[in-house]
Specification:
With 247 residues, the protein is α+β, with helices and mostly antiparallel strands. 36% of the residues lie in helices and 27% in strands.
Amino acid sequence: MKKINTLQSFILTTTLFLNSGCFLSSLGSQKIEVQKKIEVQKKTKTHKRVEQITEQPKTTTPIFMPRPISTECTDDITSACQKAPISPNELKAPKISEQGEVHNLHTIQGKPITIIEGRRGFIFPEYENKIVILEMFGKNCSHCIKEIPIMKRIYQKYRNKLEIIAIQVEDKMSPREAKRFIQRHRIKYSIIPGDDATNLQYNVQSTYGWTGILPYTLVIKNGLTEFTYPGEVSYREINKDIHSLIE
């Protein structure tokens, strides 16, 4: 009889534990940890070295074969760091040269810049014989803001051999807002309004497979796109890559 009472007590205690918040919360915590691991995996981005570009018509599929090098984004991706794709209906009538479409643009600072689509990258007539960093960024994107000091440092280090063209692809900034943004971050490199460069964004999207993630950066030398960085890039990575192009 004593053994039966002990067994009944054990069953009752176990039942109460299984229905208690402690047991359910322990299951919940395990689910949260698994979910966190999944989210961390989703945040992993890639840094790509362009190995080959073939001559094909524009498509929504990238036309180069990249060599992926892993790099990790440690913060959450917000809606401000993800731009909606450009639709063909948004394109303006293009100006075509023998080399490709010509983008006659003006920086927020008032400087004209010409960007010509080449067969394997872009040509910058004003920056001949220089490496050019072409960056898509957003004024409200936390990753883009974190990358500004890196770009400033790179710009200062390679000033005579490199130029930076940053395209602000989020909502249009008023002249007053743009001036404050440049002053606040002490930016000395060129910034172009995104609504003036819709066709250029579409080219990056269709040629390189840009999905709208911000920032998105290309490193171009002599008309050839050498590196692409989807997402935030560290100073160590981009400095190493640029240094390899100068040697």
